[in-house]
Specification:
Chain B: One of its GO terms (molecular function) is ubiquitin protein ligase binding. Chain B: It holds the Pfam family TPR_ANAPC2. Chain B: Keywords: Cell cycle, Cell division, Mitosis, Ubl conjugation pathway. The complex is a heterodimer of chains A (94) and B (770). Chain A has one helix at 64-72, and strands spanning 2-16, 53-55, 61-63. Chain A is built from one helix and three strands, in the order βββα. The relative contact order of chain A is 0.17. Chain B has 770 residues and is mainly alpha-helical. Among the domains of chain B are: 90-230, no CATH class; 240-341, no CATH class; 475-555; 556-695, Ribosomal Protein S5, domain 2, CATH 3.30.230.130; 698-767, Winged helix-like DNA-binding domain superfamily/Winged helix DNA-binding domain (Arc Repressor Mutant, subunit A, Orthogonal Bundle), CATH 1.10.10. Chain B is 60% helix and 7% strand. Chain B contains 32 helices and ten strands. Classes of the chains: A mainly beta (94), B mainly alpha (770). Strand 1 of chain A pairs parallel with strand 1 of chain B.
Amino acid sequence: MKVTIKNWHAIAQWRWDIGSNEVDDEGDVCGICRVPYEGCCPSCKMPGDDCPLIWGECSHVFHMHCLLKWLGTAASKQQCPMDRRPWGESIVSS
Amino acid sequence: MATSTLCNQVAEKWQRSFAKLNREKEGITGLLEFTRAWLTASDQLRPRDKSGLAVKPPYDKTKLRECFEIIRSCNLHAVFLDDYLDAVGRHLPAITSDIEFYMKMYEVHITYPLPTFASWLRLIQREPKVEHIAMLINIAARWQRAWAPLPEMGASAISAFTCTFQTHLYSILPPSFTEGFRDLIAATFDFKSIESAPDWLPLRFPCTPGVPRPDFTLWIVMQELGLIERYETLILSVCYERIEKHISETCGKVWDRQVLQEMRDWMSREVVTWLTMPYARDARSAEHAAMLMKGVGSRLDYHVCKTLADLRTLEIFDIIIDYPDSRPALDDLKECLQRVDQRSQLVQSLRKANRRRLLHPGADTKLILTQYVSIIRCLRIIDPQGVLLFKVADPIRRYLRDRPDTIRCIVASLVGDGESGESGDSLVDENEPIQPINQTQLEDYTDPNWEPEPIDAGPGNDIISTLISIYDSQELFVKELQILLAQRLLAIKDGNFDRERRNIEILKIRFGEAALQVCEVMLRDMTDSKRMDQHIQQQTASDLHPTVISRHFWPPLQTNTFTMSGQFRKIQEDYANEFHVFKPDKKLVWMSHLGSINLEVELDDRTVEAEVPPLEAALIELFSEQDEWTVADLIVNVGSIERSNAVKALTTWVELGVLKEDSPDHYRLLKTAEEASTRATARQPAVAVEELPPVVTVQQQQAEQMRVFWMYIEGMLKNLGQLPLDRIQQMLKFAPNYDRNIDQLAAFMEAARREGLVTVTNGLWKLQSK
C-alpha cells in the first residue's frame, strides 16, 4: 500500500527565528513596546518584513523601529534599554 | 249659582262670538254661511278610508276657496286645521292595516325556519322581497297625497299636515322596516337602466320620460315621505357597504398595481351616479349636481381611503414579504394614510404580525434580517420621516440583539454569501451607495445654536448602518468579520481571493480603515504566501502549498496540533527548511490539523482518491507501515489528539472502503476490496474535508476567557468566604482583559450555581462545600 500526495493545502504560522525552539510559547514581547515580536511596532501597520526585529549583542531583541527610536533619544546614551550596556547589533542572527 | 254678573259675561261672550261668525251680516245669514263653508271644506278634506284612496271627489276650486275665505275671515282657520289634523289621526288605522299587510308580505319571506324542506326550498328560490317594501312606500305616499290639504289652505297647513302624517307613519312602521328599506336601497344600485329594473318597478312607479334611471320616481316618492332625510345614515351605510365589498373583492392581494385611483374611478362611476338619485335629482347641470353632492362625495372618498387602508393594514406583513413587487400597494397605502389617520393601527397590526410570524424561534435569523430590511425599505416609502419605522423596528431590534447568530448573519451578508453565488439574496442592495457608518452622536443640548434635526432627515442612513446600529458597538462586527474572513481565506486553495479583497475594500469605506487593519494584514498574508510558495516551488517542487499567517492578526485558531507521520512529516520539514533559506530570520510553525490533502491510496486491487483533512492523511499513512492498528497505538504515533477525532478520521476511511473495523478499536487495512465496500470506491474522488470552521468563534473565545475568570472567582471565594456579586465584579476588574458587566457576571454565576459549584444565600455567593 502506498499513499501518494497530489496536492496539499496546509496552514502554517511564521515566527521570528530568535533562537528558542519552543513551539507553543505565547511568544515573547518587544521590551520597548510590549507587543509580541510577530506583531508590529506601534508605528507600523504590517508585521513581518515591514517591521523587522533587531538583535543586540547583549542577546536582547526588539522591534527595529522601536529600538532605533529609542537610540534616537538623548536619554538612551546608545545603550540597550534592558541592561544599559552599550548597544551593538549582533551580526549573526540565531 | 249664577249671579247676574256671570250671566252678563256669558251673554257678552256669546254676543261677541256670534258677531264674529255672523260678520255683521243680516240676521243669522252670516252664521249659516259659515256653517255651510265649514261643512263643505271639512267634507272635502276629511280623510277617507279605502275608498278615499282612489280619487278625490271633484271639487269646485272657486267655491272651496270662498269657503276657506269665510273660515279665515272668522279667524277660525287654526281651529279648522286642528280639527282636520285630529281627523287625520283618527283615520290612521286605515294606513296601519295597509302597512301591516305589506310588512307581513315582506316578513313572510324572511321568516326562516319553515316546516318542510320543500316549502323552504320554494321560498329561498323566490326573489328577494324588496318589492313589498317599495309597494308599502307607494301606498303610504298615496295615503299622504289623498289626505293632504289643498294648496288653497296655504303652505303652513301643508307642512303641519306633512309633519303630523309622517310622525304617525314612522310611529307605526315596525322595526323590520329599516331592514327592508335598506335592502330596497341596496337593490336600487342595480337599476341602472330600464332593462335591468325588475318588472314591478315601472308598474308601481311609472317612469318619467327623459329620466336616465328607472328608479327616479321611487326616489321622488321617498323624498315625499321624508324617508331620505330620515334614513340618511342608512343610505350612506349602504354606500359604505358597497364600497367595502367592492374593495375587498377586487383589491385583496392585488399589490402589483395601484388600485386607489381605480377605486376612486369606480366610486364616481358607480356610487356617485347612484347618489345623484337621493341627493341631486333635480340638479340642473353637472356642476350643480357636483355642488349638491360635494359633502357626501368627500365622505365617500374618505371611506374608500379608509377601507383600502384597513385592507392594506391587514395585509401589510405579506406586502412587505412581496416587496419590491408590492411597491404599488405601498404607494396606495401612503396616499390613503395621508387622508385617513390610521398610522397607529398600521403600527399595531405590523407589530402584531411580526410578533406572531417573525419573532419566534422557528424563524431563521437570516429570514428575520431580510424581513427587517424589507420593513425598513417599505416603511420608508410610506413614511419617509421614519416615525413608523422607529415604532415597528424596536421589538425586532431587541429580538435580534438576543439572537446569538445575528452578527454572523449580518457580517455574512456584508461580505456576500460565499456559496450561494454572487447575487444571492444578500441584504445589501448593490445599488445602494456605500457610506461610512455614522456613529450616532449624542445631541448637545447645551449648545446655544442647537437646532432640531430636520423632520425629513430620518433616523437611519442606509440599511447596513441601521443593521449595525442594532448593537451598541461595531467592535463586535469587526471581530466577527475577522473570523468569517479567516474561515474564507483558509478554505481558499487556488489562491484566488479577489472577492474577499473587494468586500474588504467596500467594508473599509463603512467601518473605516483603522478598524479593518487586521483584515488587511490577513489579506497580505495571503498574497505573501502565494509569492513565497511560487519562489519555493522554483527551488524544489513540492506538493505542499501552505498559507503562512501572521498569528497575531488572525482570530485564534483551534489548537490541537499533532505530528504528521511518515512522508508528510518529511515534506513539511523539507518545505520549512526551504522557507528558512528563503527567509533566514523566520521559521515556519505548522498547524498540522488545518488545511486539506488530496491524495491517492494505492492498494493491491484498486486506488482510492480522496480529499481529506490532515489527520486522516496522517492516520492512513501509518497503515502503510503496518496493516493493523489499535486506536490507542495510532494516537501515540501522531501525538496529542482526542480519541473521538481519531475515531472520526478512521471512520472516514472505513466509509471509503480502505479500512475495516474488525473489532472495537481495532482497524485493519483492506488490501483487496470487500464486497460491501465496492459501493464506496465507486464515488471518486471522495471529499471528506469537514465543513466545520477551523476558527474559534467568538462564543468559544468568550467561554475560554470565562474559564480563566472562574479561577479568579474560585480563588477569592476560597480566601474570603462569601462575597456579594458587586464585590466579585469589583475584584475581577483587576484581572487582565476582564470586560464583562455585572449582568454577564450574574448570568455566569447563575450557571455556576446550576452546576453545583457555588451556592447563594441573601445575595452572598460562596463555594459549594465538597
